[in-house]
Amino acid sequence: GDLGKLLVTRDQTIRALEHTLAVNANLKPGKERLTAKAGATLGCIGGTVRDKEEYLRETLEDLNTKIAAKQAALKSDPQYMPTGVVSFATMEVAMAASQTAHAVQPLIMATTLAGEPRDILWDNFVHRFTHRSIRHILVVAFTSLLVVLWAIPVTFVASLTTLSALSSIAGLGWIDSIVSLSPVLQGFLEGFLPTLALIIFMAILPMICMALSRAECRVLHSDIQHAAVRKLYAFYVVNVFLVSIIAGSLFDSLSEFTSIGSVFTLLGQSIPKTGTFFTNYIMILA
């Protein structure tokens, strides 16, 4: 369109100005500076003779003003999309273009390798790079907070594997009456039920992780899936592995805790006792 023609004209003007500057800088004594006819028809009929360097500088400034106005009008268009896809003939050129800075100011023109058309979320193209970056930071912060808060129900579930230890804590003596009702009930509560509850808690996470990844306004379907898997991995490592081990063994060791230095010794002795919990977890999950 008109903007493309203006950009081409500006490139031609810049090359002409560079040539003029080079010639004027190497003029021999007595030689006149280059001139040009301003307003001439067909480049030679009529017009006013002017210094070529001065004329080209004014022309370039006028083109920059027109281009800026065209770009502003284009950005105000509801159908304007600040992101585009460029195809290259070879992978070598595409990799070079994706790793090259295309603007002096950072984030003005950020480039990344694009996915195949079927993998692209075209609706998310309307979001700028800075907008997506801010969303990513907010989602990461929210996910980190959720990982910590998710440990509360997981800790409670893991602690159910040691009902006898819980009954020894002040205020929880009523658990003894439940445990003493039936050995079958005790085995059910300490084995199957906590593990099943944990699996139910964790079964909700994939939907939450996918929703959080979509909120980042990622451009590719595969990026959303990868981001969701990374979030889910963090949840499993922190809540299923670390929290379950510490919570499941810590209650057994509270009465033996004497100093900070004894923490690792107590954990080393009590962590193996949580093996039944993970055995039940894997068997029910399978």
Low-confidence stretches: none
Alpha carbon gap, first and last residue? 61 Å
**Got a strand count?**
2
Largest sheet: 2 strands, antiparallel
Radius of gyration: 35 Å
Q: Supply the number of helical segments.
A: 12
Order of helices and strands: HEEHHHHHHHHHHH
Q: What is the overall silhouette?
A: rod-shaped
Strand residues, percent:
under 5%
Mean pLDDT score: 78
Strands of the widest sheet, in order across it, are 1-2
Summarize this structure briefly:
The chain has 286 residues and is an all-alpha fold. The chain has helices spanning 2-25, 52-75, 91-98, 129-159, 163-167, 175-179, 183-190, 192-203, 205-215, 221-253, 263-270, 275-285, and strands at residues 35-38, 48-51. α4 runs antiparallel to α8 and α9 crosses α10.
How would you describe this protein?
The structure is a single chain. The chain is an all-alpha fold. Helices cover 63% and strands 3% of the residues. A two-stranded antiparallel ribbon has the order 1-2. It is rod-shaped, with a radius of gyration of 35 Å. The protein starts with a helix and ends with a helix.
Characteristics:
mainly alpha; 286 residues; two-stranded antiparallel ribbon
